[in-house]
Amino acid sequence: MSIPRIASLQQQSISEVLTTSTTIATTSTNLPPIDKSANNNKTTQSSANIKKLLISNQILSKNNLTKQSLTTKYSQEASMSAQQNSPLDINQNTVNSFTSSINPPPPPLYIITPTYRRPEQLAELTRLGYTLKHVVNLYWLVIEDAEEPTPQVTKLLQKINVPFSHLVAQMPAKYRKNKVKPRGVSNRNRGLEWIRANASDGVLYFADDDNTYDVEIFDEMRYTKKVSMWPVGLITKFGVSSPIVKNGTVVGFYDGWIGGRKYPVDMASFSVSVRFLLSRPNASMPYKPGYEEDGFLKSLSPLKLTEIELLASNCTEILVWHTQSKKNPNAMSLDMGKYNNTNLVHLRNILV
Ligand SMILES: *[C@@H]1O[C@H](CO)[C@@H](O)[C@H](O)[C@H]1NC(C)=O
């Protein structure tokens, strides 16, 4: 007697899954694709191309998301059914999947990734991109310190197929001759500018391409009301950089280099709500090596230490690491006399 009921519930659940996938996809499509904030000719020019890319990327990702969520749901249900003999249990699983599928999508995450052309670039972006692919309702702002977006990077971003914008922002010439360069600052400020022009809610996070991320941190950070913080592993001789937490609030910071900073934290250790950023129209990152995080967080004032939301179970877990990768020498140039008409000609275009 229970069989027809299960069948019809499963039917219902499948059509709900379809509706939900569409909802998620629509939400990502609703993330603003048009860059209203472009303020120089080069960016404007490339953003016209980017708009085209973005649209096709989003169409692709819409189809893909639908297919992907469906496949996941189907295989989850299939494996649950396979494991369980009781029709009642199958029924319960179907109901669970039904109720979880009617929840609204979570707040959007805007991930700002500064990057620049170097031998490790494509490898690092590949690793980060496929991590971000596990996170729903995420928009990836990949911002190169370059004159023009690198075509190999654009191609990779399209292939990974996380909703993205590929922008450029060059370091001002006056800093380029410095021994210690303020790397990534122009890129991150460009990302902030994009968010101010295009976003109204959700959460922003600076995710450099040389870190390792447990996907759990993304789902924790997306409910940030003002500023959230958590530990980052593999930082300085201390092995970790973290807020010091006592009775649920920040009483200081543990970091191998304090340097007179109010916020001695790593770039990967905090997220900021978009609404909070918008309430601080002058907040930006200074071109001051070593003081980028501190300067940006100070520019968000007023912000009390007691207002900082502590993630990773009150900062008792490490969910992000500053892995870095070995610095590789630039590739030697190819002897075209010797290797013309071979595959190596194609590889040469990828190498830096
Ligand atoms: C964090 O600490 C506060 C205060 O001790 C406590 O109320 C809260 O439940 C803790 N949160 C987690 C996730 O452990």
Automatic annotation (TrEMBL):
Assigned protein family: Belongs to the glycosyltransferase 43 family.
Names of the cofactor(s): Mn(2+)
Positions glycosylated per UniProt: N314
Reactions listed under catalytic activity: 3-O-(beta-D-galactosyl-(1->3)-beta-D-galactosyl-(1->4)-beta-D-xylosyl)-L-seryl-[protein] + UDP-alpha-D-glucuronate = 3-O-(beta-D-GlcA-(1->3)-beta-D-Gal-(1->3)-beta-D-Gal-(1->4)-beta-D-Xyl)-L-seryl-[protein] + UDP + H(+)
Keywords associated with the record: Glycoprotein, Golgi apparatus, Manganese, Membrane, Metal-binding, Signal-anchor, Transferase, Transmembrane, Transmembrane helix
Organism field: Polypedilum vanderplanki (Sleeping chironomid midge)
Annotated binding of Mn(2+), by residue: D210
Superkingdom in the source lineage: Eukaryota
Keyword Transferase listed: yes
The keyword Protease appears for this protein: no
Localization, UniProt: Golgi apparatus membrane
Topological category with respect to the lipid bilayer: Single-pass type II membrane protein
Major place of residence: Golgi
A Pfam family: Glyco_transf_43
Gene3D superfamilies: Spore Coat Polysaccharide Biosynthesis Protein SpsA, Chain A
UniProt GO MF annotations: galactosylgalactosylxylosylprotein 3-beta-glucuronosyltransferase activity; metal ion binding
Protein name: Galactosylgalactosylxylosylprotein 3-beta-glucuronosyltransferase
Active-site residues from the entry: E293 (proton donor/acceptor)
Pathway: Protein modification; protein glycosylation
Enzyme Commission code(s) on record: 2.4.1.135
Gene Ontology BP annotations: carbohydrate metabolic process; chondroitin sulfate proteoglycan biosynthetic process
Record's GO cellular component terms: Golgi membrane
